[in-house]
Design goal:
This protein is 7% helix and 36% strand. It has three helices and 28 strands. The protein has one domain: Beta-galactosidase, Chain A, domain 5 (Distorted Sandwich), CATH 2.70.98.10. It binds alpha-D-galactopyranose (GLA). The site of alpha-D-galactopyranose (GLA) has 10 residues, from β25 and β26.
């Protein structure tokens, strides 16, 4: 008995002195319940080690972020019984992200989110050729866009809620873009179950910038199910029709009377198979909606009846790319078993319009030295009983 008591005291002392391991190494933010845990995530083929940062709030919601691509690898949200489940698509193993992440799962997208026609644009009379990675076009910043880069991550110590500050400096000429671009992104998890994303950038030469986040959501928490039963509402009276390579034609078309009318909530699948030229071109929805209003405002709501989960999106951007996961092709395993099949996730990528550098009638995406690029988007989760 005596020996057993001695052993217990020894073990207790050991735990007090050396802590309980890295995973449990809580970092208390402003003395509150919220916290950030840091852990090892994986090792890149060339030996670089990747860290994972887990943000938690007082309700038990968790968001996991890695310093490769600023990728959100997991995000939990409550169902109507209070059960928190992962609602973002991702790979089962780190290699999925390191080997190119062809779907851009969870990633920060830059320097230019969405497409630039024929991978070129002209600024101040000079034409820049950027890297092509989508037929004739450049998509999501090129082959080695921001989704493939190492981001420096710091935990913001004086923040009200758990906050990560991610920084990346894109060299002048990277992927063909002019100007050294210093980029900062903040991820904050609030106590009302909202993930707030703030983007900032500065340049030393005129350039173009359009930053976004490419998380795919499936509010059912089961990644083998399609998202066509999710009900979606978008506050937009107009959308941007596209050509065969998904470049906007320049027309700003009224959604009224078309399958693109989400002004009143309806299931994503309701009109997705309609005989419509634009739906054929996008293989479903893969278009930019011109959001009503200005400033930080509620722009979209999604509701999954089966679980009661609902998500509201706020942004100060003029547009949102609603993409119904039409290129998901079952090549990879999902985190809940099975494969990532056609339309098992959707994205609401807040942004300026695609191909803005070549379309003078669109809001400008140009950033000049001395100016500060700033934008904010919030994904807020709640439950409808
Ligand atoms: C964006 C595009 C889609 C597709 C996905 C990635 O959302 O608009 O066409 O390229 O990224 O698969």
């Amino acid at each position: 008995m005596k020996k057993a008591t001695h052993n217990s005291i020894f073990i207790l002392l050991f735990l007090i002195i050396f802590g309980c391991g890295k995973e449990n190494n809580k970092q208390d933010i402003s003395g509150k319940m919220e916290n950030v845990h840091t852990s090892d995530y994986g090792v890149m083929p060339k030996g670089d080690s990747i860290k994972k940062y887990t943000l938690s709030n007082k309700n038990g919601m968790k968001v996991e972020v890695i310093n490769f691509g600023g990728i959100i690898t997991s995000l939990t949200a409550p169902d109507r019984n209070g059960k928190y489940e992962d609602v973002v698509l991702g790979f089962t193993k780190p290699e999925g992200y390191f080997d190119g992440n062809p779907y851009y799962f969870g990633a920060l997208i830059g320097r230019y989110g969405n497409r630039i026609a024929n991978a070129k644009f002209t600024l101040d009379g000079k034409t820049y050729e950027i890297n092509k990675n989508d037929g004739p076009n450049s998509l999501h910043g090129g082959k080695e866009g921001f989704h493939t880069r190492f981001w420096n991550i710091e935990v913001v110590k004086d923040a009200k809620f758990p906050t990560l500050k991610l920084s990346y400096t894109s060299a002048d000429g990277e992927e063909g873009y002019p100007g050294k671009l210093t980029t900062t992104v903040f991820y904050t998890l609030t106590d009302d179950n909202a993930l707030e994303i703030s983007y900032e950038a500065e340049t030393d030469k005129p350039t173009v910038v359009n930053l976004t986040q490419h998380s795919y959501f499936n509010l059912s928490g089961n990644f083998t199910k399609t998202i066509t039963d999710h009900e979606l509402q978008i506050n937009a009276d107009h959308f941007l029709p596209v050509n065969e390579t998904l470049i906007p034609t320049g027309e700003q078309k009224a959604v009224k009377g078309t399958p693109f009318d989400f002004t009143v909530s309806k299931p994503i699948g309701k009109d997705i198979s309609a005989d419509d030229d634009q739906l054929k071109k996008g293989k479903g929805y893969d278009h930019n909606w011109i959001l009503n209003g200005k400033g930080l405002r509620s722009i979209a709501k999604v509701y999954h009846q089966g679980t009661g989960r609902s998500m509201e999106v706020f942004t100060d951007e003029p547009g949102v790319q609603f993409y119904s996961g039409n290129f998901l092709d079952g090549k990879f395993d999902t985190k809940t078993g099975g494969k990532n099949e056609f339309r098992t996730g959707f994205c609401l990528e807040t942004q300026h319009f695609p191909d803005s550098p070549n379309q003078p009638s669109f809001p400008s995406t140009e950033l000049k030295p001395g100016q500060k690029y700033q934008s904010k988007t919030i994904y807020k989760f709640s439950v409808k009983k």
